[in-house]
Amino acid sequence: MSDALRTGINLILGAGIAIGTFSCEEDFNPNTEADPIPVVYAVIDPDDSIYCIRLTKTFHCNSSIQDCAKVPRIQYFENPVVELELLTPQEYLLNRVTLEPMILGNKEPGLFAQEPNLVYGISREHFEFEDDETEYIFSLHLILKIKAYEGAPLTYSHVMVRNPAKFEYPRKDYPQTFGLFEQKMEEISWWGYPDEFQNVIFRIGYSDNFYDSISYKHFDAVFEISPLNPEQPYFNRMEYDIAGEDFLRKMRIWFRDKPEPFDLEYRKIVSVSIVILSINDDYREYIAALNHDSDFDIKEASNIINGIGLFAIKREAISAGHSFNQKTLDSIAGSQVTRHLKFVKW
């Protein structure tokens, strides 16, 4: 992996972005003699109330990395210009905004100073994704442009803004009872884009029950789906079969690093929702590169021109109000894989 990408990874870690598990050699040195390189991270969901871009940079210092990292501003450009442009499918300009600097809460503890936690953002009310001429978003173009400093080349990236998935089964607002341990596996089907990275998520609401109180939480059983057809950018029907044993293993993984609450008597499943999460495939490649644990170089995963990092659009579709049949509840409560979690059969 090149020094530039390693620098970007460490700066992103220092900025408090944690997705998955990162693997970097301990002797990596982010100090570089070259001109600073913009390091960008942004995953934008059009349904969020605020859209944020995290912009940091590679740097050079004459002392140790640990000493330099204590200087809060060393990872940031001074007064960069960060813009978003939204274009129609025919590439006519719909909207253009300049993002404002925003200070978020403190970052996670790490090598870099925790303050300020600087991003560039805009509220949803000042940057609408809807096209007034159409009822739904359909393949709009979103362009990120960054002028990091005077004389710097333009840093930019381009992604498509598409509709979220449309459920075929289970239909929205039509409660279903799922049987994950029947002879025929449950099949989730939807309409979406085969060239995107997608997750089918069973979002399970449950209660932690104590002697004198109840606490409500949820867990996600996530089934990742690589692009089914990278050359097919059109809305199409897709499906995914859910095997009961796979679901139990996902449950075990979710709870593995979560200590059991003190005095827990039992847990009870109270709701079942299905989520289809879709995101441009650059995200999958980017996370795979960060998780890469090898002495061999790999291709730098970045969709940022004249910079490094990630610019992505995320969409979610949710079908709620479902439940499990009795056989599934029995399996969750009695399986060797999950019975230690104290879920009941009722």
CATH fold name of the largest domain, please?
Immunoglobulin-like
What string, H for helix and E for strand, traces the elements in order?
HEEHEEEEEEEEEEEEHEHEH
Low-confidence stretches: 1-31
Helical content stands at: 10-25%
| Average pLDDT | 84
Describe the protein's architecture and organization.
The chain is mainly beta. The protein has two domains: 3-161, Immunoglobulin-like (Sandwich); 166-277 and 319-341, no CATH class. The chain is 14% helix and 38% strand. It has five helices and 16 strands. It has helices at residues 3-14, 65-69, 244-255, 282-290, 326-334; strands at 38-44, 50-57, 81-87, 93-98, 100-104, 117-123, 140-147, 155-161, 166-169, 177-178, 186-192, 197-209, 214-225, 236-242, 266-279, 308-324. Strands 1, 2, 5, 6, 10, 12, 13, 15 and 16 form a nine-stranded mixed sheet that branches. Strands 4-3-7-8 form a four-stranded antiparallel sheet, with no helix packed on it. Strand 7 and strand 8 (155-161) form a beta hairpin. The longest helix is centred in the first third of the chain and has 12 residues, at 3-14. The termini are far apart. The model is unreliable at 1-31 (pLDDT under 50).
